[in-house]
Amino acid sequence: MNKPFAIAIHGGAGTILHAQMTDEIQRAIEQALDQAVSQSHQLLAQGGSAVDAVVCAVRILEDSPHFNAGKGSVLTAKEMVEMDAAVMSGEHRQVGSVAGVRHIKNPVQLAKDVMQQSEHVMLIGEGAEEFAAKLGYDYTEQDYFFTDRRYEQLLAMKAEGTTALSESRYPDDHKFGTVGAVALDQDGNLAAATSTGGITNKQFGRVGDSPIIGAGTYAENHNVAISATGMGEAFIRCCVASDIAARMRYLREDVHTACTAVIQGEVKNLGGEGGVIAIDRSGEIHFGMNCEGMYRSCIDIHGKKQIKIYADEV
């Protein structure tokens, strides 16, 4: 008998404006989502692990300039990229996380290697890059990550003295840039991965929720895997991913009820905006958001594929 497997991915949530979404931009975003979800699903279909599937999906999104992770990362106040990522395996709750890396093409891959090839859970900054060098990673110059779009965003925010745009040229400049994936494999294992470039014009080595286990990333076999995207500080304060998992574990809430309770409840009450993707032990998928949109896609246990952008798409 075939065992269920499924995957869901996201490319960030927030204010995504219909009026500024061109056909060209929408096609490019949807193509990247399609490639990520399709290739990772194929890996699962061939018996691959949930961990490998979520890393595969996130790597593809990191390689696209259309998402705030890897190649498309936003710029800090010092006109550099500082990227964070995490991977969690639900089987033994193994974790790998990196923060503040500047010269790693695919931070999610490094997070996986921290999980599988080190004694540690989280590595940051220069230390994380020293670990990467020891494993033979290529040193990626900052020029690789630089895009005109992100530079324009930085200049606009510096002019306003903020870390949030009041006006934008792009449909998603008010979106919280994170990419992530959750998966269930044929062995019944769950996994989650999240990667981000952080926030534009950030200072002081700020780190958001993406690499924080229990905030932006979490996976627990026989329960749920979660990847979040939103106002990182609010998601950390609410322990979003951990809270969803706890509601399912102790209150026996289903994945839809638990996600909705957290995203539309405590997070929203604190002024936090964003969303989550989640998959439970049976492969049931949930996309939850309290904002206007989230780049998202999935292939469920029946092989049905969906690619959506706006909150009002059912």
UniProtKB/TrEMBL annotation:
Secretion signal span: none
Binding positions for substrate per the UniProt entry: 206-209, 229-232
GO molecular function: hydrolase activity, acting on carbon-nitrogen (but not peptide) bonds, in linear amides; peptidase activity
Pfam families according to UniProt: Asparaginase_2 (PF01112)
UniProt cross-references to InterPro entries, sorted A to Z: Ntn_hydrolases_N, Peptidase_T2
Organism: Vibrio ruber (strain DSM 16370 / JCM 11486 / BCRC 17186 / CECT 7878 / LMG 23124 / VR1)
Active site: 178
Alphabetical keyword list: Autocatalytic cleavage, Hydrolase, Protease
Protein name: Isoaspartyl peptidase
Domain of life: Bacteria
Record-annotated site: Cleavage: 177-178
GO biological process per UniProt: proteolysis
